[in-house]
Amino acid sequence: MAKFIAGFSSLGSAAGDLFASKGYKQQAKGFQKAAALSRETAVLAGVAGEIQAVRTKREAYKVIGGQKADVAGAGFAASGSALDLLRGSTAEAALDLALTATQTSITVKGYEAEAESYKAQGEAAASQGKSSFISGVFKAAVGIGSLFLSDRRFKRDIKRIGFATNGLSIYSYRYAWGWKTRIGFIAQQVAARNPHAVVKLFGVLFVNYKEATRG
Questions:
Q1: Bridge partners of residue 204, in order along the sequence
Q2: What's the pLDDT tens digit per position in 9-55?
Q3: Which residues pair with residue 174 across a beta bridge?
Q4: Residue 181: is it exposed, middle or buried by C-beta count within 10 angstroms (0-12/13-18/19+)?
Q5: Same domain, 72 and 136
Q6: Same structural domain for residues 71 and 87?
Q7: What is the 3-class SS of 18-85, one letter each residue?
Q8: Are residues 19 and 96 in the same domain?
Q9: Which residue has the higher pLDDT, 48 or 75?
């Protein structure tokens, strides 16, 4: 009875982790979309800044051109106070352009930083989702009992070290997230020889070792 209760509890906990995994995946997608929008907005802000710079230049040329025309129309030489006026207008136009460029740069960098922040949050959510998924699958295996994670996709440093009495290859390996060396089968190989010994939980392959080692 106690074993049944423990197994049922593991299945319940597994369901919670797998549900959380889906939530994290949705969060990751949301952050990815937000990052893309921020990058697009940064580009648009840059374009808007360029347009504003062109408008500022155009207005400056109109003012300076009008001043030159007024000076010429009045019969004054471009010297003295007239020259000072033109220089002042030119300096003011240059200042306006510099301010426009600075503001554009600040805006663009702000959106780019926002995009990087969303990207980092998306990666963190994706990582949490993966961890939660793996945890859920493990707990589901515990709840069902007698199953071991043997999917090749989750293993690294795989080396064949011998054979079982029924001819199945035995390997040493490490799980992708761990450092401890383990010994066992590869689910994909077991499935080819004895498919009844392999169980697929949420897309991940587990092996019932008792069933797999039968002749």
A1: 201
A2: 554 565 566 566 777 778 778 878 888 888 888 888 778 778 887 77
A3: 156
A4: exposed
A5: yes
A6: yes
A7: HHHHHHHHHHHHHHHHHHHHHHHHHHHHHHHHHHHHHHHHHHHHHHHHHHHHHHHHCCCCCCHHHHHH
A8: yes
A9: 48
